[in-house]
Amino acid sequence: MGKKPTAELREEPRDRTGNDAVLGYAPLPGVADEMVDTNGAIRPVWQRFFAHLSSMPEKDLTERFTRADRYLRDAGVFYRAYGSAGSAERSWPLSHVPVLIDAREWEVVSAGLVQRADLLEAIVADIYGQNRLVAQGVLPPALIAANPEYQRPLVGVTPAGGHYLHFCAFEIGRGPDGNWWVLADRTQAPSGAGFALENRVATTRAFSDIYAETPVHRLASFFGAFRDSLQGMKHSGDDRIAVLTPGPANETYYEHAYIARYLGFMLLEGEDLTVVNGKVMVRTVSGLKPITVLWRRLDSAYADPLELNQNSHIGTPGLVEALRAESVTIVNALGSGIIETRALLAFMPTICRRLFGEELKLPSIATWWCGQKDERGHVADNIEKMVIGPAYSRAPFFDDSGESVLGSTLRAAAKDSIGDWLDCDGAKLVGQEVVTLSTTPAWIDGKLTPRPMSLRVFAARTANGWQIMPGGFARIGGSDDVSAIAMQSGGAAADVWIVSDKPVERHTLLPAEGSFTRNMPGSLPSRAADNLFWLGRYIERAEGALRILRAWHARFAEAADPSQPLLADVTAYLAAVDIDTEDAVPNTLLRNIDSAVYSASNIRDRFSPDGWLALTDLAKTARRFHETISPGDDASHAMTILLRKLAGFAGLVHENMYRFTGWRFLSLGRHIERGLHMTRLLGHMSGTDAPDGALDMLLEIGDSVMTHRRRYNVNTARLTVTDLLALDPLNPRSILFQMNEIHREVEQLPNALVNGQMSPFYREAMRLHSGLAVMTPETMSVDVYRRLERELELLSDLLARTYLG
């Protein structure tokens, strides 16, 4: 590079070889910039990264960013966006250029956040304890008593272990003077730590060479320390730790599953838990098991419908009772969301001086609660410089929800009524200083462009005190509007690199070399087993439909006459199972595939990214064919493509899934559904009144044409087809093969044998298996098939009553 680029160089690029867009980066006037200082020089921490960018042609940069996007897409990273039309999953919006911060500056930020975390702990402990801050007039009583986040049943309830807060997040931003400010505190159920990890992985895919030679602090040590801290909260070695999620409809559900998988914890919903004698238990296929640590990702009010929000359908009745008994630690404690209240920012400096005898090391954004006369007057006199919003809101002032308004717009619209409004509703309002956030480079339309940003930074309580994540993620504005209120309109998220001037340690969550203990997988929650079982059934149901439809459309392509006896007969069969042949890809098939995707989405913590990608690709392809393919030869070809994709998914699951309890329920679902599929088909198409060609079609649907030719020295006949598709124990499509596999899996299920006695489910599976094993082709009749179909359905119901209730 030679010497540092100057402002003049940025205005007049040195060349036109493709990197002039990088050199042409120009910060916005009067705004602090992360990459360029006030003299127009590249900051030292950015120089190496900038040198690399400057040497890359635009095509190379585009290919690098494509790699990062491909990783996020293949990993299935998403967030759920809500709008007037409902909610929808959207791809994670990565801003590809990371934000670089010098490690020495980060030490100052970290010290301020550690102090703030301690302060928040002291405040929430006082609010639910002795309440001295209110009694001494430091906090207005209304901010507590009228606060919707104040959970009265938790007053006087001291958390097990003594701490209310274990994991916090902070929104921070840099102002025009270059100093960092706290914009909002996050203590309710802070999200984003998992997304920060995914940002790091995706960004290093784009800049693997730069990252490898740059001393960037790793994130693994932060998560490892917090995992060890949670492990230390368990009451005994057999206790369990779980991430408590509101469920797949939550906007950050992907992160809940990712964190649970990354740290090796169970992912549970409220319905998975029950409270027995003051202890929290998880319903598993092996019975009730104790949970002593819950990292909750749902709001406090919804955690216990018995004592908190009675309208909650996602909580666990009795959870507050368990807290009183100190049998469970909840991270963070229920009720801690009150600290996020926007109006409390106005009192943080005074509280810090009162409790700690010192000033805030990292100040809050200037905030005035309008419930006080002097503060109300100050806001009214300086309305043009203010953002006005709800006092009890937990959303940061720059949230794009429409809660907050710029005071400058109010002055123009209602100049004379501001004072009256604040006098009337002041207790419900806060004024906050309009902050001009610093900008950072973002790749927009093929060039580096300054965009406003804030950082979300995380703090975890460990055995050695609070530890600050060396990074986090940056929230990047969607436009160059640096009035922070509009920052999230079309925004994105970027990785944050804390760059040292010396080599950094390469941490990992993998155990060190040496001796180890092989832990068996944890108990399988009943809800997870239910979803695995139905995932197996839906996948097999879709495959069965695809095989029948492919055979039907292949014959329709030849005859072009749906009234032909065989086609009409199969059409009637399909209609009985709600499949319409008028659509090449029927809606019923789409529903089965979508149901499989939904079941898999409920167990994302137990599902491999490759398997998820294969399943969602199958669903997208099926929907595209539904809209574009016509009946006949095209449809037959489309069914073959879908079968191959489905086989790819099944192969990934078969080759990669650990052979433990979850695998058994997935396998049982597939074997029961395949047995039902073949039983129904044989009962309908192998009778003496079946139309010509029915037996050949049966062999084709059962993927057994070649096997039949090799095994029987006769033409297709009812007895040979029955023998091969119903009673051959070596044919993976036969009914007996399914019963053999069901018998083998059932033997390995928890509590299959109790004190030497078979469970009712095991006994019924044995009876069905034995009864079919002694049958001969001559004894297999339509009535036998119908009875077997009913018994398989009853077996499924018995499994559900035994393990999935």
How much of the sequence lies in strands comes to: 5-15%
Overall mean pLDDT stands at 89
Outline the low-pLDDT stretches.
1-21, 483-488
Note the main sheet: 8 strands, mixed
Rounded radius of gyration (Å): 31 Å
Number of helices: 28
How far apart, in Å, are the first and last alpha carbons?
67 Å
Fraction of residues in H or I helices: 40-55%
Structural class: alpha+beta
Counting DSSP E segments of at least 2 residues, the number of strands comes to 22
Q: What characteristic shape results from the CA principal axes? A: elongated
Architecture overview:
The structure is a single chain. The protein has 805 residues and is of the alpha+beta class. The protein has 28 helices and 22 strands. Strands 3, 4, 5, 16, 17, 18, 19 and 20 form an eight-stranded mixed β-sheet that branches. Strands 6, 7, 8, 9, 10 and 11 form a six-stranded mixed β-sheet that branches. A hairpin with a 2-residue loop joins strand 8 and strand 9. Helix 17 (526-559) runs antiparallel to helix 21 (633-656), helix 17 runs parallel beside helix 22 (661-685) and helix 20 runs antiparallel to helix 21 (633-656). The radius of gyration is 31 Å and the shape is elongated. Residues 1-21 and 483-488 have low confidence and may be disordered.
